[in-house]
């Protein structure tokens, strides 16, 4: 009987300890998309990326315009092909056709290179912004004693009820003004 009482007391003690430990864990949530869009660094990164992408697009468009001129020239010369000028014109058309093919190859390579450069530039511009936001969330979570902070902008969070929304605290940590729409 004494052993049974000891086991019962031990079991109750363990249950209380587990409940106490669970009660101490705090949960918070944040919408990282809203946070990132409110950061001035994100607006700067967006503007810089758009400028860079536009420059790459302009370069490709110039190459495309050059190709189109060559194709038009080829088509016009081809229309004038006759038995009398066949020998001279076929040589010219062959050279022009080769030039067009070389340019098309350069355009394809330039497009692939531009895509790689855009990916690299995107990482270069946005990674520091993501890191700054992540670090701020971590600091706030640690300061406030949160065991978990969920990002409700990600599809993995199906439901949340409770916890504290940390967006305004993190914005304050980053020095971002809190507008009435985000309160």
Written overview of the protein:
This protein is mainly alpha-helical and 183 residues long. The chain has one domain (25-182): 2-Layer Sandwich (Protein Binding, DinI Protein, Chain A), CATH 3.30.910. The protein is 75% helix and 7% strand. It is built from 5 helices and 3 strands, in the order αβαααββα. Strands 2-1-3 form a 3-stranded parallel beta sheet, covered by helices on one side. α3 packs antiparallel against α4 (86-144). It is rod-shaped. The protein starts with a helix and ends in a 9-residue tail after the last helix. Residues 8-13 and 16-21 have low confidence and may be disordered.
Write the layout of secondary structure elements.
Elements: H1 2-24, E1 26-30, H2 32-38, H3 40-79, H4 86-144, E2 146-151, E3 164-165, H5 167-174
Parallel strand pairs: 1-2, 1-3
Helix pairs in contact: 3-4, 4-5
Which ranges are low-confidence, i.e. pLDDT below 50, for 5 or more consecutive residues?
A: 8-13, 16-21
The shape is rod-shaped
CATH homologous superfamily placement:
Skp domain
* Strand line-up across the major sheet: 2-1-3
Indicate the radius of gyration in whole angstroms: 32 Å
- In terms of DSSP E residues, the strand content is 5-15%
Number of domains: 1
How many separate helices? 5
The secondary structure category is: mainly alpha
N→C terminal distance:
60 Å
Question: What's the β-strand tally?
Answer: 3
CATH architecture: 2-Layer Sandwich
> What average pLDDT do the residues reach?
83
């Amino acid at each position: 009987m004494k052993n049974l009482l000891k086991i019962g007391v031990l079991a109750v003690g363990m249950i209380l300890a587990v409940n106490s430990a669970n009660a101490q864990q705090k949960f918070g949530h944040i919408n990282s998309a809203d946070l990132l869009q409110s950061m001035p660094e994100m607006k700067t990164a967006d503007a810089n990326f758009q400028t860079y992408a536009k420059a790459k697009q302009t370069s490709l468009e110039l190459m495309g315009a050059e190709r189109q001129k060559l194709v038009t020239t080829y088509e016009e010369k081809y229309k004038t092909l006759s038995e009398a000028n066949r020998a001279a014109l076929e040589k010219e058309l062959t050279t022009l056709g080769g030039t067009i093919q070389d340019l098309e190859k350069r355009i394809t390579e330039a497009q692939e290179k531009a895509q790689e450069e855009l990916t690299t530039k995107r990482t270069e511009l946005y990674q520091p912004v993501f890191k700054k936001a992540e670090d701020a969330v971590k600091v706030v979570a640690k300061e406030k004693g949160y065991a978990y902070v969920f990002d409700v902008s990600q599809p993995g969070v199906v439901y949340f009820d409770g916890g504290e929304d940390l967006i305004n605290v993190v914005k304050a940590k980053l020095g971002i003004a809190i507008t009435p729409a985000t309160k």
